[in-house]
């Protein structure tokens, strides 16, 4: 509904809250694609750091009601996330990064075997 009015800015407040991971990714992909097609600035508040890192370009991190980080994806490192959210969130991110790296390695090895 929000896009029917052709806005210049889309505010998405917790657009994937309470969704399972597959549905959350589908919704975020739709938001990203719609914003790209319409050249639409999008601001999304998310508590799912992995999803934010996957789909976001610029990040604001808040702690105790104050902005403690303002930067881009490459600056939004695990150490920054640890400072903002603590060990619990960064453990999940490190596990995801290890899983992604292993999948990349398997894909590269599979491609090398075919050539």
UniProtKB/TrEMBL annotation:
Keywords: ATP-binding, Cell membrane, Membrane, Nucleotide-binding, Translocase, Transport
UniProt-annotated stretches for the region Disordered: 95-115
Top-level taxonomic group: Archaea
Keyword hit for Membrane: yes
MF annotations from Gene Ontology: ATP binding
Gene3D superfamilies: P-loop containing nucleotide triphosphate hydrolases
Sequence ranges of Basic and acidic residues compositional bias: 95-107
Name of the protein described by the UniProt record: Phosphonate ABC transporter ATP-binding protein
